[in-house]
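Lecture 7 notes: from sequence to structure.
We start with the chain below.
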Amino acid sequence: MGFTRVGGARSDHKVRLYAISTCGWCRRVKEWLGERGVEYEYVDVDLCSRDEKREVTAFLKERGLPLTFPLVVVDGSTFISGYRPEELSRALGLD
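Predicted structure tokens for the same chain:
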């Protein structure tokens, strides 16, 4: 799956964002991360191939997560669904 890397000064956590290209909340998460200098990688799921979409769906189902976007995964174990700045700050140690 083709993730796009966005560099940042804060790279102490592995941050992965599953987004939809036309989603306003997804854009807000990208902006929020960028404003705080957080390095992350993202994929716009709606622009993925059918097989890649199945892969994302399977990833979410295996973890009991809803198929909603944006979804931020921090260090492979913390899952934040939606635009939740307070939760992001806490997970990234920014508070």
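Points to note: The chain has one domain: 4-92. Residues 4-92 form a domain with the Glutaredoxin fold (CATH 3.40.30.10).
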